[in-house]
Amino acid sequence: MDLLLSSFDIIARWDVIAALVLGSLGGVLVGALPGVGAAVAIAIMLPATFMLEPIVGLTSLLGIYGSSMFGGAIPAILVNTPGTPVNALTTYDGFPMTQRGEARRALGLAYSASFFGGIFSIVCLMLFAPVLAKIAPMFGSREIFLAALLGIVLVVLTHRGQVLAAAMLAFFGIFLQTVGLEGKGYTQRYTFGQGWLQNGIDLIVVVLGIFAISQALVLFLDKDKSFPMPHVGKKGFFKVMGELWIFRRIAVVGSSFGVFCGMIPGVGEFMSQFMSYSYAQSTSKTPELFGKGNPEGLIASEVANNSVPAAAMVPLLALGIPGEELTAMMLAVFYVHNVIPGPALFAEQMDFVLALYMCLIILNVLVVFFLFFATDTLMKVMLIPNRFLGMMILTFSLIGVYSLRNSLTDVFVASGFGVFGMILKRLDYPTSPVILGIVLGGLMEDKLRTAMARVKTPWDFIDRPIAFILFSMIVIAVLLHCWTMWKAHQGKKVDELHSETGN
Amino acid sequence: MTQKDDEPHVFPLGRKPGELLFCAAFLMFAAALLAMMGWQTSWLPRANLAAQPRLWPAISLSGMALFGFILWLRTRSIARTPGRWQEAAVWLRALEYISWYVVYVVCIPFVGYLPSTILFCVLLTLRLGYRSRMALLSAFGFALFVVLTFKTAFNVKMPGGALYDLAPSGLRYILIRYF
Predict the structure, then answer these.
(1) Residue A263: burial class (beta carbons within 10 Å; 0-12, 13-18, 19+)
(2) Which of residues 391-430 of A touch B (CB under 8 A)?
(3) Quick one: average pLDDT of A294-309?
(4) Over the stretch B17-55, which tens digit does the pLDDT of each residue have?
(5) How far is A145 from chain B (nearest CA, A)?
(6) Average pLDDT, chain B
């Protein structure tokens, strides 16, 4: 009880509440804008949060992170264009419902599913918090190294169909963090005698280039899209939300997948949605209607993606390991304020952790009420032309890049990464492995160096239970991937043989 | 399994124009950096392997080169979509917008943040093909919103323009401090 009161005391301040309200409403807005998304918004806001206290800065970013998926469902359902990448599966069943004239029902179900997913995951994590606080101190250097390695491996392997590109880009991210004056032996690494490279490549500059400037360039080079606005109807959202009770089994299981996947570094929304959607389809009485406007599919997608943000905060806060690009950016806020997330934070400042979870509960309630009354207005932001939106993103991104040090070099570096990110996006290559490579690469180098000082034989490295479990998970993940690839290859050969004999 | 352009997708399949070009360029970049390792990193004689400054550049660049090479091989084996050089031309076209961006930044210390931002937003809006009064007013309003929010209210660190020095002393302070 004391812990709860202490947590409440942390957030019962006007600046925290203001950050929460602005962050969450801003998150819904950027989510509803196809072509912006939470990553771009967080990248832009990141430098502005450095001047705020950690709880205020984090609350505003959490607001954007947790609420963007609510907003992203609006264009996904109404115009078949996901507002954020994680709303892609929502289009499968949401848009056909709109075409059937059930737009209001689809939106109401998406809001209620998102709300349920969000609250479910926060409640789960608040209940798990004491257990996590006991487990977190068991993580020493080698466990954190292995958890970071697991994060990189899973980030790569979960990019189905792009594993090679994801691996190549993750290694590129790891390389980027090695550039500059190395901290232990004070030797230069890939500085080419250039003074501006001695301090290394700034994460914020890379983030703004790869997420914000690249997105502006993508929009500039694309044609403007016009969306026919569907008729949404006048039926109340409250009535539709009650319908979620009929699909409670899918909601609970889908949210559980979200919590599970969110807690494992590198897995995140896509995998949880895939598992949730597959489960809903395989247990449905009407699996043939999936992809044709089945409310079960819509709910499976939305509960899974919205239960991830709260869970993704666990590896970040307990181990200092971000699971995906959004939490990697949030890690920068901690570092700027010299608050080092990790076992000590989780064990000693549990009130701070609980305060963040309380903020997530409040933002879910705020957002759902906001959407009840503002959906019709939000639909209008989809009318902003793409290329005009690109101009807005580019103008915003300057604040982040230039206000850091008023350095023209930073602008050139960010522009370079902007072009690089634009090429990756046009080729459908993932950008998150680069950012995770930068963040987790530095962590792995540091922890491996510390851990190896106490290790005599390779076996010593995994002779503690958690280290052994993490090592086993890495091996199993890689073997499972190889086995899946081999099976797919065999299946392809059989198909080719069949088609040859058929001809 | 084929993928239709008009269908939403989470995991894209197939080969896009310019993909092989990108893979080849990335592979060459990784190989060049790998070749420079001897003189761009150090090897400390008395330190153990984990403490070697060369270890992580070696791991990362080897990974880049290895996966880049496999990706290049795999990309070559997929039926190509025509339009490689057109795609490369699109990449180069992005440099025009980067130039706009750089000119905008260069102007700030001379013209000031508010005038630079208004000019950048309005002129770029015109360049993008929006000529209506509504579009230009929106661009102007947006520029004003950005400056008033970030420079005036949040006081983000932006240099005052040299042009502001021409203003009378009382106004000069306000312009430098808030705009």
Answers:
(1) buried
(2) 391-392, 394-396, 398-399, 402-404, 406, 408, 411-412, 415, 418-419, 422-423, 426-428
(3) 87
(4) 888 899 999 999 999 999 999 888 888 888 788 888 899
(5) 12
(6) 85
Give the DSSP per-residue string, A378-428.
HHHHTTS-HHHHHHHHHHHHHHHHHHHH--HHHHHHHHHHHHHHHHHHHTT
Per-residue pLDDT band for A26 (boundaries 50, 70, 90) equals confident
Does pLDDT of A340 surpass 80? no
**Contact with chain B for residue A138, Cβ under 8 A:** no
How close A413 gets to chain B, by Cα (Å)?
11
B41 contacts in A (CB within 8 Å)?
Answer: 187-190
Spatial neighbors of A436 by CB under 8 A, at least 6 apart, are A151, A152, A155, A170, A173, A266, A322, A324, A325, A328
Whether A304 and A255 have beta carbons less than 8 Å apart is answered as yes
pLDDT of amino acid B101: 92
Six-digit token pair at B65? 């080169």
CA distance A402 to chain B (A): 7
Q: What is the DSSP letter of B12?
A: -
- Whether the complex's predicted ipTM is more than 0.95 is answered with no
**pTM (predicted TM-score):** 0.82
The SS3 call for residue A181 is strand
Q: Which helix (H) or strand (E) holds A189?
A: strand A188-189
A201, A217, A420, A496: which to substitute to probe chain B, counting the most B Cβ within 10 Å? A217
For tokens 């939000």, name the residue: A378
CB contact under 8 A, B18 and A427: yes
pLDDT beyond 80 at B80 = no
Dmax (CA) of chain B: 70
Can you say how many angstroms the Cα of residue A415 is from the centroid of all Cα atoms in its chain?
A: 24
pLDDT tens digits for range B106-135 = 999 999 899 999 999 999 999 998 989 999
- Number of Cβ atoms within 10 Å of the Cβ of A248: 11
Nearest to A435 by CA among A109, A208, A115, A117: A208
For residues A404 and A416, give the distance between their C-alpha atoms in angstroms, rounded to a whole number: 17
Q: Name B67's Cβ contacts closer than 8 Å, sequence gap at least 6.
A: A164, A165, A167, A168, A171
Q: Give the other-Cβ count within 10 Å of B141's Cβ.
A: 12
User: What tokens were used for A190?
Assistant: 């890939």
The number of C-beta contacts closer than 8 angstroms across A and B is 189
A409 is written with which tokens?
């070099």
What are A48-81's pLDDT values in tens digits? Answer: 777 777 778 888 888 888 888 888 888 888 877 7
CA torsion through residues B150, B154, B157, B162, sign: positive
Contact A111, A310 (CB under 8 A): no
Distance from the B103 Cα atom to the nearest Cα atom in chain A, whole angstroms: 11
Separation in Å, CA A231 to CA A376, A379, A425, B62: 10, 11, 32, 55
